[in-house]
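Recall the central idea of this unit: under ordinary conditions, the amino acid sequence of a chain determines the structure it adopts. In this exercise we apply that idea directly, starting from the sequence alone.
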Amino acid sequence: MYCPSLVSLPEWIGDLTSLQELKVVNCPKLISLPEGMRRLTSLCRLTIAKCPCLEERCEQGTGEDWPKIAHVPNFRKGGDGNLKEWIASQVRKCLEEAFSFMYGRFFRQSDICKAQTFTL
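Accordingly, the structure predicted from this sequence is:
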């Protein structure tokens, strides 16, 4: 999501219960996250970058919005989504597809999300 004029996310975002990845980048007017973020139980990757106020509010353990996203196993803040990160995300997607193809649906998405992060 790249929206420099965005001031808030809708509360109904919590209804997107199948959402697995969310990137909020360059939304400097976005100040806080809605309570609905707590309902995104399938969310396994969240990136918040170039959103100064929001990044501060999402500080692990101390930020006002941290309780809304503490359940997300892979949370990153800062940075700007560089090439290494993009390549790693593509590798993860390929592996997810390979596991699904090779092993049917024996692996849940949450199992794959818990896998080690790839370092390139």
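Residues 82-120 form one domain.
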